[in-house]
C-alpha cells in the first residue's frame, strides 16, 4: 500500500506493508481456515438474503394475481392455492428472519432468527484472531445445517405450493394480464 500526506502545497508519499501483529502467533493454516470459514459463512448469508428477496418477490406476485383473480368467477381453487403458497412463504420467512421488528428496540422484544445468528457468528469470528475455537466451528456447523434445511424447505414450497398455483393458473387458461370486465 501507499500512504499520502498532503498539507497545503506539500505532499509526501510513502509505501507500507500490512503485517501480522507480532504479539500474536498465528500459523498460516490457522489463518487460512479462519478466512475460509468466514468466506463460506458470508456466502451462506448472501444466499439466505437472496432467498428472502426471491420469496418476497414471489409472494408479492401471487398477492397481486390473487387480487386480480377476485374479480373473476369460478377460480376459487386457484385463489386458495395462492393463499396456501403465501402462507407457506410467510411461515418460512418468519423462521429465517424476524419479520416483526419495526424499530431498533424490537431486538429485545422478539427472538432473533437464523439470519441474525449467522451475522452474529460472522462478527464474532471476524473480531477474533485465529485459530478458530471449537465453539465457533460447532456453531458454524449448526447454523449451516439449519440453513440447508430451510433452503430445502423453500425449494419444496417453490415446487409444491407455488408450482400448484402456477399449474392451476395455466389450467384456467388465464392471460398474463387480466382485463377487468
How does this model look, in words?
- The mean pLDDT is 90.
- It contains four helices and two strands; from the N terminus they run E-E-H-H-H-H.
- A hairpin with a 2-residue loop joins strand 1 (2-7) and strand 2.
- The protein starts with a strand and ends in a 10-residue tail after the last helix.
- Helices cover 63% and strands 7% of the residues.
- It has 181 residues and is mostly helical.
- Helix 3 packs antiparallel against helix 4 (134-171).
- Strands 1-2 form a two-stranded antiparallel ribbon.
Write a brief caption for the model.
The chain is mainly α and 181 residues long. The chain is built from 4 helices and 2 strands, in the order ββαααα.
State the major sheet: 2 strands, antiparallel
Strand content: 5-15%
Average pLDDT confidence is 90
The total strand number stands at 2
Strand adjacency order, main sheet: 1-2
Helix fraction bin: 55-70%
**Rg:** 25 Å
Number of helix segments?
4
Low-pLDDT ranges: none
Looking at the structure, what is the overall shape? elongated
Order of helices and strands: EEHHHH
Offer a few descriptive terms:
181 residues; mainly alpha; elongated
